[in-house]
Design goal:
Pfam families: GUB_WAK_bind (PF13947), Pkinase (PF00069)
CATH architecture of the largest domain: Orthogonal Bundle
InterPro entries: EGF (IPR000742), EGF-like_Ca-bd_dom (IPR001881), EGF-type_Asp/Asn_hydroxyl_site (IPR000152), EGF_Ca-bd_CS (IPR018097), Kinase-like_dom_sf (IPR011009), Prot_kinase_dom (IPR000719), Protein_kinase_ATP_BS (IPR017441), Ser/Thr_kinase_AS (IPR008271)
Organism: Eragrostis curvula
Strand content: 15-25%
Keywords: ATP-binding, Disulfide bond, EGF-like domain, Glycoprotein, Kinase, Membrane, Nucleotide-binding, Serine/threonine-protein kinase, Signal, Transferase, Transmembrane, Transmembrane helix
Helix content: 25-40%
CATH superfamily of the largest domain: Transferase(Phosphotransferase) domain 1
Largest sheet: 7 strands, mixed
Membrane topology: Single-pass type I membrane protein
Length: about 700
């Protein structure tokens, strides 16, 4: 049993989490507790080990986040080297609560929405024991109209939301939907850096007659807008938030862990730094970090054979036709080398009387080596087989396998691929086979044994809760049969994160055709753009209304609409899709695009409206907004268009070719449809079926 536990730990994923029993009555190893004389409290905050106040009282290096400073006069506890004020530390939940200053942007009072005071408050946790808690913290923006988002340490966009203000009588205490001056968004796993950005939208051009008439979504505005990361249970939005003009701090929940090694197995190998040596502590995998690919670090993790990366570890085996120890140089030998060695030894006669003894010893040594080698290979194979079986069961493979018989009788062709088949099809996921990188994984060009060419999608991560529902979702998705939906051909469940196999759509994404890349920009005529919009809407309407149960896509964008050989639309990338609950709309995940905390079918409608805008204007979802006082700033295409439509300038901002080739009535009705779809109140948006029907009528008039 102990050996099995060690084996599971050796291939398990992720980083270390120290779990200490605070109520232990027996003595523990000194290395796992604070030395005598160390302060255990600062103000109202208790400081448990591995945290400590001052040198020698904490675990590890100074800048790892475990060393704290205490300002006794003010009762203020901060993280040394980072400066964040600590409000609470919990051992059982491995969490810490720190205070974060809210970012603030205040505007002028003459209606121009020009930022006159800006204070953006980042928080960097790089190299520390901390990560932002994706379960208990969220990103919030208050004030209107406003656009708030944040980037990570590399400057890459993470998430954001947009808020507008309806009349104050519609605002509900505690609500934060995006149309009430407050919006919110969930944050991803593994986030260690946060740099917020605040902007505005809906600027009016001075000198126009329409300046007197303000759009409904700009009915009320606030002097200042704020953005901050915050404890989801602590934050409660109220009308008094609108009146703020000064600075304030909010609590944010962080996950902490001992991150000295990629896994428990790796940590145990260094007895000098291993944290969980006490009989009252245990090493657990935290599940909060991406896997380290040991196969790419040969100097640190030597492997001179076939290296297979596994969560938190790696497997190193000799190439086919050889055996031995692949972790040492020249450790793999051809399988027939031992036979040659035996012939050489047994053919050497030291003397006639000793020949039989030498031969017997040589054969015995050879058999011993052979048995050990066979045992080693057998153990490796059993480990791989057990890992594949565990992943297969974990991903719902048993349920899916049971249902495949009934699916086949109904004409549904869906295959469960083995990991070996996927490896051969993609040439071991070779970089030369990469077709593109999506928001949820990498897509490879695969060639199956029958010669058919497919698209193989390898996701980056999967939530444990989603893994349990994976088989059920595959059963539903495999039965989708719509000419404008990319066909799901099968999947592989013998890996930690399931691999999906789709039909290959040859002409790439709609995004490339609209915005460029190898000369494809603007290749679609206005009539073709309207056709692609109608076909895509028809596919989404089918998923919402005709599939049983209904399916929410949740990641509708131009990059996820592909074009086949005839430039017909095919909706793809169901990496974020979820089955809608029976008799309801809601799905439990963040909706940054529409400013809501819950996703519904109306969230797909909002996202699809942005795609239609890209087709009509030729602009990207985030575009430079021209301004008379400033050269340019990044803005939302949706809000930029809404502001133009409110002033009657919707035709002006459309692509020149679209304006010239489509009838004015078609342009006006398309703009009206987009405005309805972009309503901040989800209940005011049309259904996807209504959108599809409207686009079909517009296409017939074009």
């Amino acid at each position: 049993m102990a050996a099995k536990l060690m084996e599971v730990l050796a291939v398990s994923s992720l980083w270390l989490l120290l779990w200490l029993a605070a109520a232990a009555t027996q003595p523990v190893v000194v290395a796992s507790q604070q030395p005598p004389g160390c302060r255990r409290r600062c103000g109202n905050v208790t400081v448990p080990y591995p945290f400590g106040i001052g040198a020698g009282c904490h675990r590890g290096a100074t800048a790892n986040g475990f060393r704290l400073r205490c300002d006794a006069a003010r009762g203020r506890l901060t993280v040394a080297g980072y400066g964040h004020e600590v409000a609470a530390i919990s051992l059982p939940t491995a969490e810490a609560t720190v205070l974060l200053n809210a970012s603030r942007a205040c505007h002028d009072s003459d209606g121009g929405r020009r930022v006159v005071s800006l204070r953006e408050q980042p928080m960097a946790l790089n190299g520390s024991a901390f990560l932002f808690s994706s379960m208990k913290s969220k990103f919030v923006s208050i004030g209107c109209p406003g656009l708030a988002y944040f980037v990570d340490g590399g400057g890459y966009y993470v998430t954001g939301c947009m808020s507008v203000c309806r009349p104050s009588e519609r605002a509900l205490p505690g609500s934060c939907r995006g149309d009430d001056g407050c919006c919110q968004s969930n944050i991803p796993l593994g986030l260690d850096s946060y740099r917020p950005h605040l902007g505005s939208f809906g600027r009016r051009r001075r000198g126009r007659a329409q300046e007197e008439e303000e759009a409904t979504f700009l009915a009320n505005s606030t002097a200042c807008s704020y953005a901050f990361m915050v404890d989801a249970w602590w934050f409660w939005f109220a009308g008094s938030n609108f009146n703020r003009t000064g600075d304030f701090a909010v609590p944010v929940v962080l996950d902490w862990a001992i991150r000295d090694a990629p896994s428990c197995a790796a940590a145990r190998r260094d007895a000098g730094t291993y944290a969980c040596r006490s009989e009252h502590s245990i090493c657990l995998e935290s599940g909060m970090a991406p896997d380290i690919n040991e196969c790419k670090s040969r100097d640190e993790f030597p492997c001179y054979g076939v290296c297979i990366n596994t969560p938190g570890s790696f497997i190193c085996t000799c190439p086919k036709g050889s055996s031995g120890n692949a972790t040492v140089e020249h450790g793999c030998r051809p399988n027939d080398r031992y036979t040659l060695a035996l012939k050489a030894v047994t053919g050497t006669r030291i003397c006639p009387s000793a020949s039989l003894t030498v031969s017997g010893v040589s054969i015995g040594v050879f058999m011993l080596v052979l048995v050990c080698l066979a045992a080693h290979v057998g153990i490796q194979k059993r480990r791989l087989l057990r890992a594949k079986q565990r992943f297969f069961e974990q991903n719902g493979g048993v349920l899916l396998q049971q249902q495949l018989g009934s699916l086949a009788s109904s004409g549904v062709a869906f295959k469960l691929f083995s990991s070996e088949e996927i490896g051969r099809a993609t040439d071991g996921f070779a970089a030369a086979r990469v077709l593109g990188h999506g928001g949820h994984g990498v897509v490879y060009r695969g060639v199956l044994t029958d010669g058919s060419v497919v698209a193989v999608k390898r996701s980056r991560t999967v939530d444990a809760k989603q893994a349990r529902e994976f088989a059920r979702e595959m059963l539903i998705l495999s039965q989708i049969n719509h000419r404008h939906v990319v066909k799901l051909l099968g999947c592989c469940l013998e890996v930690e994160v399931p691999v999906l196999v789709y039909e290959l759509v040859p002409n790439g994404s709609l995004h490339r055709y609209i915005h460029g890349g190898d000369g494809e920009a603007n290749k679609l005529s206005p009539a073709a753009r309207l056709r692609v919009a109608a076909e895509s809407a028809d596919a989404l309407a089918y998923m919402h209304s005709s599939a049983s149960p209904p399916i929410l896509h949740r990641d509708v964008k131009s990059a996820n609409i592909l074009l086949d050989g005839d430039l017909a639309a095919k909706v793809s990338d169901f990496g974020a899709s979820r089955l809608a609950p029976a008799g309801g709309e809601a799905a439990a995940d963040g909706d940054a695009g529409a400013g809501n905390a819950g996703l519904t079918s109306k969230s797909d409608v909002y996202s699809f409206a942005v795609v239609v805008l890209e087709l009509l204007t030729g602009r990207k979802a985030f575009v430079p907004v021209e301004d008379e006082e400033e050269d340019a700033e990044e803005g939302s295409l949706a809000f930029w268009f809404l502001a133009a439509a409110a002033e009657g300038r919707h035709r002006e901002v459309m692509d020149r070719q679209v304006r010239e080739e489509l009838a004015v009535e078609v342009l006006d009705q398309a703009a009206e449809l987009v405005v309805r779809c972009l309503s901040m109140a989800g209940e005011e948006r049309p259904t996807m079926k209504e959108v599809a029907d409207k686009l079909k009528r517009l296409r017939s008039c074009a």
